[in-house]
């Protein structure tokens, strides 16, 4: 009954999540709007484009009832530009995620806290210069399901593989930042990368935390004694030297 | 009969029975809990629950009950539609069924993840009223019964032959509680969802580290690694989500 899995999504679950992403399809058959649990689908009228969740788009594609329009970032030219950015412009950190399409305004709105996979980051009108959160899964799924809809699928496949390698190296390197503890940012990271790197990164973090526990407790006590509390960083410099 | 007639008919029937539009369950006005909003909330609840080592609060707004109701109705609808074997409706039927299966997977995986956590630290979640608050009604019943059975089994198999003062399962002798809980300091991956307090909608996270504490502004959509106890408050406020 109980779920025999560790905390954190498995790659299969990430792919499931990715199938909720919206993509743009060009229908080849009419299909009336359906009242699904997650809201009504748009009525499909060829040749008008319509946004659909990926799982439904794949279903239509498999039955040759629609073609999927690849997101602009999946085109070879965009991927090439992003790869250049990843290797040359910013060799240490990931390329930035797409900007949030809905601004936080002064009035609370339901779009304020929306996050992937419910952001339209892979529809036909999404920005071409950013890798969305589900880039790897989405790219792989589309290459698998509809290579005929993607221009130069082989080149896209190679570029995706290159990107994956560059970014995997960054993911591994990010472990160095975990040493001192605290919060470390992985801005721009993808879902599958998180899923892959989770056990390693969390393992390193927890291991280091347990090793450094007495030191952390000692530091806290000392800070409390000094009554400062705020400026923890400088107090420790000297001691660090002694340890390393 | 044309497909559009059928669908219209179904829509009408669907609306008739929509409990969220009515007041049957006492939940909000219509539109407040749209299917899409519920799907997003359910997905987030599932991902959060799968990511955290600790049991998260049971959704108080009746999300799970609502989602279960929706699925039940959609299944009834499918059963009615299976009656007419028009090939055109058949395909709509496949789509509807596929979606129902997806919802069912979400709910099932969510509940199973919770049961796994309750099984692991039953006494912990039953030990204080604040922790018990996090369990849903059926989960409290499950946890209590689970613990009863377990305790009965322990008593009859070995605890019974111990001296009385060693029979407790919740001793705190020596300053160490016997009741183990989940690791609250474990590392998690979280994403900033935006907040009204920080500038530009970023969430300010205060992280504790070995060599120093640091504050970092987490922008919307930014993923960070942090200790669960440092971000729990933000996740419960809905300013961050686990990934």
From TrEMBL, chain A:
Function field: The GINS complex plays an essential role in the initiation of DNA replication. Has a role in chromosome segregation.
Region: Disordered, residue numbers: 87-123, 212-244
Subcellular location: Nucleus
PANTHER family: DNA REPLICATION COMPLEX GINS PROTEIN PSF2
Protein name according to UniProt: DNA replication complex GINS protein PSF2
Ranges annotated as biased composition (Acidic residues): 223-244
Domain GINS subunit: 128-211
Subunit structure as annotated in this protein's UniProt entry: Component of the GINS complex.
GO biological process: chromosome segregation; DNA replication; double-strand break repair via break-induced replication
Organism: Phialocephala subalpina
Pfam hit, one: Sld5
Assigned keywords, A-Z: Chromosome partition, DNA replication, Nucleus
From TrEMBL, chain B:
InterPro entries: GINS_A, GINS_bundle-like_dom_sf, GINS_Sld5, SLD5_C, Sld5_GINS_A
Lineage top rank: taxon: Eukaryota
Subcellular location: Nucleus
GO cellular component: CMG complex; GINS complex; nuclear replication fork
Pfam families noted in UniProt: Sld5, SLD5_C
Family listed: Belongs to the GINS4/SLD5 family.
Free-text function comment from the UniProt entry: The GINS complex plays an essential role in the initiation of DNA replication.
Protein name: DNA replication complex GINS protein SLD5
């Amino acid at each position: 009954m109980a779920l025999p899995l560790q905390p954190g999504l498995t790659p299969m679950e990430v792919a499931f999540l990715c199938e909720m992403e919206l993509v743009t399809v060009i229908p080849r058959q009419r299909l009336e709007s359906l009242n699904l649990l997650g809201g009504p689908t748009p009525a499909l009228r060829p040749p008008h484009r319509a946004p659909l969740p990926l799982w439904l788009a794949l279903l239509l594609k498999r039955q040759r009832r629609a073609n999927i329009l690849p997101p602009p970032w999946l085109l070879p030219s965009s991927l090439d530009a992003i790869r250049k950015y990843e290797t040359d412009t910013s060799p240490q950190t990931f390329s930035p995620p797409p900007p949030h399409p809905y601004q936080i305004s002064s009035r609370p709105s339901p779009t304020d806290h929306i996050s992937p996979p419910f952001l339209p980051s892979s529809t036909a009108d999404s920005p071409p210069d950013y890798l969305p959160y589900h880039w790897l899964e989405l790219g792989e799924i589309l290459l698998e399901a509809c290579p005929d809809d993607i221009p130069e699928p082989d080149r896209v496949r190679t570029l995706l593989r290159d990107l994956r390698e560059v970014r995997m190296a960054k993911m591994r390197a990010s472990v160095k930042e975990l040493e001192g503890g605290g919060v470390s940012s992985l801005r721009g990271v993808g879902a599958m990368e998180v899923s892959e790197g989770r056990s390693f990164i969390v393992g390193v973090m927890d291991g280091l935390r347990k090793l450094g526990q007495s030191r952390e407790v000692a530091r806290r006590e000392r800070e409390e004694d000094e009554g400062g509390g705020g400026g923890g960083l400088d107090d420790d410099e000297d001691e660090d030297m002694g340890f390393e | 009969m044309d497909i559009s007639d059928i669908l219209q008919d179904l829509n009408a029937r669907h609306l008739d029975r929509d409990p969220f539009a009515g007041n049957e369950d006492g939940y909000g006005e219509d539109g407040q809990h749209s299917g899409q909003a519920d799907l997003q909330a359910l997905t987030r609840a599932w991902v959060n629950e799968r990511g955290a080592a600790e049991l998260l609060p049971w959704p108080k707004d009746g999300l799970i009950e609502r989602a279960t109701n929706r699925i039940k109705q959609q299944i009834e609808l499918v059963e009615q539609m299976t009656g007419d074997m028009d090939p055109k409706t058949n395909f709509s039927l496949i789509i509807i069924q596929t979606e129902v299966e997806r919802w069912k997977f979400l709910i099932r995986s969510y509940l199973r993840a919770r049961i796994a956590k309750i099984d692991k630290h039953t006494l912990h979640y039953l030990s204080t009223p604040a922790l018990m608050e996090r369990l849903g009604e059926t989960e409290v019943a499950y946890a209590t019964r689970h613990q009863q059975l377990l305790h009965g089994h322990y008593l009859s198999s070995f605890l019974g032959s111990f001296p009385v003062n060693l029979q407790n399962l919740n001793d705190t002798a020596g300053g160490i509680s016997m009741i183990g809980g989940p690791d609250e300091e474990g590392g998690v991956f979280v994403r900033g969802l935006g907040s009204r307090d920080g500038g530009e909608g970023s969430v300010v996270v205060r992280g504790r580290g070995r060599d120093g504490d640091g504050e970092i502004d987490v922008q919307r959509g930014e993923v960070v690694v942090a200790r669960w106890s440092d971000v729990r408050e933000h996740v419960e406020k809905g300013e961050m989500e686990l990934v």
